[in-house]
Structure formats: C-alpha cells, structure tokens
Amino acid sequence: MSLPDIPSPRPGPLAGHVYLVGAGPGDPELLTLRGARLIAGADAVVFDNLVSPVIVDLAPPAAERHYVGKKASDHTLPQGEINRLLVRLAQAGKRVVRLKGGDPFIFGRGGEEMEVLVGAGITVEVVPGVTAAAGIAAYAGIPLTHRDHARSVIFTTGFLKNGALDLDWPMLARPGQTLVVYMGISRLAEICRELIAHGLPATTPAGVVERGTTRAQRVAVGTLATLADVVRDADIRPPALTIVGDVVGLYPRLAWFSPEQVDPVRHAPHVGCTGVHPEPDCDSAT
C-alpha cells in the first residue's frame, strides 16, 4: 500500500510514546494516513489477530513485531501481559504502535490499555480507526442510519466479561433504530429470542456479515425468527458482525462489494489467523 506525498500535519512520533492506532475492519486501505505514518516510524509494533499483514509491513524492517492476537477462547497473551509488554517497550524508549482492528475505543480494550500506560507515566496518543460496524455495514450495503428506517444506531456486545448475556434488552429492542452486535455469533439464537421477547417483531430484518471488508466477506440475511437457522445453514463463523433493523432489508438492492474482484495480496490473512478481519479484542472481535 503506497501513501500519497502529503506533508504530515503534525510532528513525527516521539521516543518513549505509545500510539493506540485503529487499523480498520479488515481492508488495509481503510487505514488512516496518520496511522500509516506512525507505523512507518515505529520502533515496535504490537498487533492483534485480524490486522492485515499489509498494514504490519508498513513498519520499518528493523522494527520489533509482537503478535498478541486474540480469538475466542484463544489468547496469545492475556490482557495483563499485553499491558506489561506495552509499558516495558515504552519505558525502553521505543516508539510503540499498538495496532488494533477497527477502532481502539470501540470494543477494542484501548481504554483499558491507556489507563495502564497513563498510570505508568507514559504518554499515549489515540489514532481512531474505521470501526467494524461502520466499515462492515458499508461494504455489505447496509446503511446504519436512514431517514426512512433508522433514526439511531446502537453498538453492543454479545461477549461479556462475566459470560452472562445480561444486556438492556428493552432498550435494544426499541423500534426505529439499528442494532449492531459485536462478538455475538456464538449467542445468536439467544440474542434473537431476547429481542423478540422484548418487543421487536419476529419479522424484523437481520443479517450477519462474516469477515467483512475482506476478500472472504460473506453476508447472510433473514429475520429475527430465521436468522440463527440461516447462519447455521450457511456455516457462517466468527469473526462476524450482526446487524438488526429495517435497514438490513435494503441489502439486496444496495449490495455493491464483490469480494471476487479484490486483489488477494491486499487481503492476505496473517499467519496464525482465521481470517483478516475483526473476535476479540473486540472491535477486533466481531
């Protein structure tokens, strides 16, 4: 991926800093220019499971590369060890880029890592990324808001720290909004049942997008009553994002992305990954 010759609007990275950089939802070309410039000047890159190797390879050849990816029930390093690694690298005077799928502050544990770093006296900069919800919905042709169908959008997670799915179901089941569920594929049938039980019609359009924005993208759509069966029959697997609301009904007409036409090199999966997209970490884990 080449960058246009645009002067940086800010000074380059400073030694001993950590940059929490959102790598986007899978397509490496969705990385921001600021993120690309910081990676190009990094001494160390700490990256998650679903960050494209094209993005990681923007780092200088001499830069340290630390893979700390998370997949469901399979963590290369526990979160506490990742926190300590970031502190140790920064305290050694390195310019550290912590690469996260999607956006660091949307189900990406960026806030947790920043708290630890700030507590250790380390300066941190956050570089936003295209969150999975926005990027994946766009590539699926599902507008998250629409004047005729959705006045608001809600992001929630189907993977809670305590394992219980104790969400605010009455709020999530309100009409006239779009609901996006990160990391909910393993609890999909339960999520659909709860939404119906709390007032959403069983005929509400709903869909799941697997490995969105990548060459492996697949979309399965149905209703709250049928979605779990549709996803099972299509063998849709994580990482996948669930979208519920009338806007999903626009998918058949607005779908524009053709994975078959994507350059395979641009979307090559990282070694050890199940795919190239955001299941925890969490924007890194849909």
From TrEMBL:
Entry-linked Pfam families: TP_methylase
EC number: 2.1.1.107
GO biological process entries: cobalamin biosynthetic process; methylation; siroheme biosynthetic process
Pathway in which the depicted protein is active: Cofactor biosynthesis; adenosylcobalamin biosynthesis; precorrin-2 from uroporphyrinogen III: step 1/1; Porphyrin-containing compound metabolism; siroheme biosynthesis; precorrin-2 from uroporphyrinogen III: step 1/1
GO molecular function: uroporphyrin-III C-methyltransferase activity
Protein name stated in the entry: uroporphyrinogen-III C-methyltransferase
Species annotation: Aromatoleum aromaticum (strain DSM 19018 / LMG 30748 / EbN1)
Family the UniProt entry places it in: Belongs to the precorrin methyltransferase family.
Cited PROSITE patterns: SUMT_1, SUMT_2
Keyword Phosphoprotein: no
Signal peptide range: none
Record key words, sorted: Cobalamin biosynthesis, Methyltransferase, Porphyrin biosynthesis, S-adenosyl-L-methionine, Transferase
Tetrapyrrole methylase domain ranges (all copies): 17-228
